[in-house]
């Protein structure tokens, strides 16, 4: 029951949010975490703003990955960015 914003569209370059609007949401505390797929990280201005201004979290902090029998890690491969760090949160 938490609000979610999907941006980037199918190819990752749909400008759903401008960087100014995205920054405003972050600074207002309305949004804090972003899960960025590789396509978004390369071609979306808002995603590039997130990478520049937010901190990637280690996967172990939010998604412990039990290994399969063959040692291959499971789980989400996209990085999670925290835009609330350094803001007293």
Tell me what you see in this structure:
The protein is α+β, with helices and mostly antiparallel strands and 89 residues long. Helix content is 31%, strand content 9%. It is built from 4 helices and 3 strands, in the order αβααβαβ. It has helices spanning 19-27, 38-43, 45-53, 59-62; strands at 33-35, 55-56, 80-82. It has a 3-stranded antiparallel sheet, covered by helices on one side. The longest helix has 9 residues, at 19-27. 15% of the residues are buried.
* Low-confidence sequence ranges: none
First-residue to last-residue Cα separation? 21 Å
Query: Helices and strands, in N-to-C order?
Result: HEHHEHE
> What is the overall silhouette?
globular
Estimate the helix proportion, in percent. Answer: 25-40%
Strand arrangement within the widest β-sheet reads 1-3-2
Give Rg in angstroms.
14 Å
The profile of the biggest β sheet is:
3 strands, antiparallel
Estimate what percentage of residues fall within beta strands. 5-15%
Number of strands: 3
Helical element count? 4
Write down the overall mean pLDDT.
Answer: 77
Q: Which structural class matches the secondary elements?
A: alpha+beta
Nutshell version of this structure?
The protein is α+β, with helices and mostly antiparallel strands and 89 residues long. The protein has 4 helices and 3 strands; from the N terminus they run αβααβαβ.
Outline the secondary-structure elements.
Elements: H1 19-27, E1 33-35, H2 38-43, H3 45-53, E2 55-56, H4 59-62, E3 80-82
Antiparallel strand pairs: 1-3, 2-3
